[in-house]
């Protein structure tokens, strides 16, 4: 909150006035925690997330046609620092029970009125300045060490100014620790990229930074540094060439329980490792054994236990080879015309690419996709289709304009596209799908275009 005070006020009076302004709220009766307005002309989806002792509390909202939204849950701890996702754009805010704030979003700019605006501005500056998209190389924005370091320094300077404007001393100190931890996180990321891209010899600098991480500090979890700490801690060294997934991941979780005292940091790592466990597509019996092996930890992290139960339940309804497509999402072409997936593929074998411009592995598959398409482009029995998951339509349009693909390219209409991907269980890309002439799925997770056997896979689909 910016408070303008005349020069004749004594420092003690300034401190007292600041403390009063930071701890009092003056909302209207029944005013929500956060009212927002996004400069859009159609309903827009957003997700609002905050951390509660290692658990991400997520609220998904859809604005009205004017971009207005209201966020007013019962907070787990009475107050929360928020991360707000609108497509690929990140914003930040702060809410506190009994207080009310208004947020206006126009492009990348967010402004605040009402209560706790100083803390809202800090969070917004932090998450926008240290946006992962700023520090993520893409085919169209390759890694350049000097540029990345300049971006990092500028991000830290902007965040420092926002920290200094926070009136409450306790909050200011906590935000300073978080800003420093986030700066360290991205420093480590840049060092890692430099090693990978340029074969830089920076292990000594990396080790020095890793040694300064406090694994039990809240800011270590909130900044993401906890993952760097875990990766270098080597809690359960593995010497076996072949490992049992259930044993490996349950041993890791048990070791974390012993190594850390911060329960929130424990729960955060439990959640990360559980997600990794499921990425290896374990069997139902593996999942049951895993759940039993980490029962003491799940008792302290019921949200993870609930997630495991949800995953088990979803497996029974999971789309599999031989099933029909679960829905018929709307697709938008480069020229803005609309169609549906069934209209595009009807009566033909379809090889479908789900991708996004920000996904480097997806973009690496494009030249291979083009090579395969050229082999079959004169065959009327098959259609090749690329469907982007980009929220940033302009980025997708620019990529299509640059590449000039010869096969159909579309972007999902947001709502029907998200529903389709959820029902398909597609939560990672690149992903390829082969659908038969009868509209039933031949391969729910088909070979990539770069796969050496891709021609035999497609030929087999055409022969059915």
Average predicted confidence as pLDDT = 90
Across the major sheet, the strand order is: 10-9-13-12-11-14-15
How far apart lie the N and C ends? 67 Å
Question: What is the CATH top level name of the largest domain?
Answer: Mainly Beta
* SS-derived structural category: alpha+beta
The CATH topology of the largest domain? Immunoglobulin-like
Low-confidence stretches: 1-23
What is the number of beta strands? 15
Largest sheet: 7 strands, mixed
Tally of helical runs: 17
- Helicity range: 40-55%
Overall 3D shape: globular
Number of domains: 3
CATH superfamily caption of the largest domain: Carboxypeptidase-like, regulatory domain
Please state the oligomeric state of the protein chains shown.
Answer: single chain
Rg computed from alpha carbons, rounded to a whole number of angstroms: 25 Å
CATH architecture of the largest domain: Sandwich
Strand content: 15-25%
Description:
By secondary structure, the protein is of the alpha+beta class. It folds into 3 domains: 11-230, Immunoglobulin-like; 234-316, no CATH class; 330-463, Glutaredoxin (3-Layer(aba) Sandwich). The chain contains 17 helices and 15 strands. The protein has helices at 11-23, 117-129, 145-164, 169-198, 203-210, 218-223, 225-233, 245-259, 263-279, 284-293, 295-300, 302-316, 341-345, 360-376, 393-403, 414-424, 454-463; strands at 34-38, 45-52, 55-62, 68-71, 79-86, 89-96, 101-106, 109-114, 330-333, 338-340, 349-355, 382-388, 409-412, 431-435, 441-443. A 7-stranded mixed sheet has the order 10-9-13-12-11-14-15. It has a 4-stranded mixed sheet with strand order 4-1-7-8, covered by helices on one side. It has a 4-stranded antiparallel sheet with strand order 3-2-5-6. Strand 5 and strand 6 (89-96) form a beta hairpin. The longest helix has 30 residues, at 169-198.
């Amino acid at each position: 909150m910016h408070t303008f005070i005349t020069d004749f006020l004594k420092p003690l009076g300034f401190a007292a006035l600041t403390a009063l302004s930071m701890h009092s709220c003056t909302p209207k009766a029944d005013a929500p925690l956060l009212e927002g307005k996004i400069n859009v002309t159609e309903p827009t989806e957003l997700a609002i997330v905050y951390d509660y002792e290692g658990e991400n509390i997520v609220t998904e909202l859809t604005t009205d046609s004017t971009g207005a939204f209201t966020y007013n849950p019962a907070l787990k701890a009475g107050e929360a620092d928020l991360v707000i996702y609108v497509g690929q754009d990140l914003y930040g805010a702060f809410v506190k029970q009994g207080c009310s704030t208004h947020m206006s979003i126009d492009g990348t700019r967010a402004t605040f009125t009402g209560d706790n605006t100083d803390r809202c501005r800090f969070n917004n500056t932090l998450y926008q300045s240290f946006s992962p998209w700023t520090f993520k190389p893409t085919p169209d924005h390759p890694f350049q060490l000097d540029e990345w370091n300049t971006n990092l320094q500028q991000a830290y300077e902007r965040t420092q100014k926002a920290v200094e404007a926070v009136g409450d001393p306790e909050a200011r100190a906590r935000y300073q620790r978080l800003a420093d931890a986030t700066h360290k996180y991205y420093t480590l990321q840049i060092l890692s990229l430099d090693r990978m891209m340029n074969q830089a010899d920076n292990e000594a600098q990396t080790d020095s930074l890793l040694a300064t991480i406090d694994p039990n500090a809240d800011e270590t979890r909130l900044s993401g540094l906890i993952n760097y700490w875990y990766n270098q801690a080597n809690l359960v060294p593995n010497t076996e060439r072949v490992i049992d997934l259930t044993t490996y991941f349950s041993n890791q979780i048990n070791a974390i329980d012993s190594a850390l005292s911060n329960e929130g940091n424990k729960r955060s790592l439990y959640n990360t490792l559980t997600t990794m466990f499921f990425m290896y597509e374990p069997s139902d019996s593996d999942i049951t054994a895993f759940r039993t092996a980490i029962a003491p930890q799940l008792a302290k992290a019921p949200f993870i236990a609930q997630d495991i139960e949800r995953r088990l339940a979803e497996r029974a309804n999971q789309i599999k080879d031989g099933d029909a497509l679960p829905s018929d999402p709307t697709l938008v072409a480069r020229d803005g015309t609309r169609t549906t997936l069934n209209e595009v593929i009807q009566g033909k074998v379809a090889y479908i690419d789900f991708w996004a411009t920000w996904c480097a592995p997806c973009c690496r598959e494009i030249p291979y996709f083009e090579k395969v398409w050229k082999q079959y482009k004169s065959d009327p029995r098959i259609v090749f289709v690329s469907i982007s998951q980009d929220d940033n339509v302009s980025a997708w349009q620019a990529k299509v304009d640059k590449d000039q693909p010869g096969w159909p390219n579309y972007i999902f209409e947001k709502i029907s596209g998200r529903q389709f991907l959820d029902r398909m269980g597609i939560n990672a890309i690149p992903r390829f799908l082969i659908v038969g002439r009868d509209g039933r799925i031949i391969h729910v997770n088909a070979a990539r275009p770069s796969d050496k056997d891709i021609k035999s896979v497609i030929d087999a689909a055409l022969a059915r």
